[in-house]
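User: structure tokens for this one?
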Amino acid sequence: MRGPRHPILWGLAGGVVLALAGLRRRLRTVEVTGDSMLPALRPGDWLLVRAGARPVRGDVVVARHPERPGLLIVKRAAHRSGDDGWWLESDNQGARGRRDSWDFGAVPDALVVGRVVARYRPLSRAGTLTRGALGWQAAVTLGRPAQRSEQ
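Assistant:
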């Protein structure tokens, strides 16, 4: 049996495959199921989340609700709250059922799942999310199909 004609290229291809496999383990998808993120995020928007990524002020993050660990929420990291964790706030403070750090305090680092890096669905609204003014909240679920959840 003969080896590959270009061992360097095969080695590079193998490295790329391993890197992509590692990246895939760190990427998650969530679907927005609430309207408290309007106008920036809408129900039905699908987001790509880099799990384990450390947020900085202004990042949109996915976190476990501190009072209901089975519920994931999308919020903007407003600021660090000492050793207590991240102060997470909603864009639409007037949204019905909105809950954020104003209600439950700072969210411990261990409950922050990761940083939202892009919206990929619907295609007409696809694009990266940038750091900006404070805000954003929506209830989300991992994977498909999405479950509706209270906010």
